[in-house]
Design goal:
Elements: H1 3-19, H2 25-38, H3 44-53, H4 58-65, H5 78-90
Helix pairs in contact: 1-2, 1-3
Length: 93
């Protein structure tokens, strides 16, 4: 494994933990589920977007991914679109 691949794998493992330990149970379930399902396939650019997103308030993240609040332009990214799609599809009856 190259250093860059090792670094990316380490970042993904760190994200797996951070996404399931945000401080809000609902956010933990949704972000943690997304990363468990898609984390190993996330390219480096999406990993970086997720790392930036986790700097935001976890209640805000929950409101954005459940579409209870508008997503600020800084977080309007392909990753956010994937998260919203994941939450929509997860809760279909």
């Amino acid at each position: 494994m190259t250093d860059s691949a090792h670094d990316l794998a380490t970042r993904r493992r760190r994200l797996r933990f951070r996404c399931s330990h945000t401080g809000t149970r609902e956010t933990d379930i949704l972000l943690g589920g997304f990363v468990t399902t898609h984390g190993d396939a996330l390219p480096e650019a999406r990993v970086a977007e997720l790392e930036r997103l986790l700097d935001a308030n976890d209640r805000d993240i929950l409101d954005w991914i459940t579409e209870r609040a508008a997503v600020p332009p800084i977080y309007t990214t392909p990753l956010m679109a994937a998260l919203i799609d994941y939450v929509r599809n997860r809760h279909k009856l």
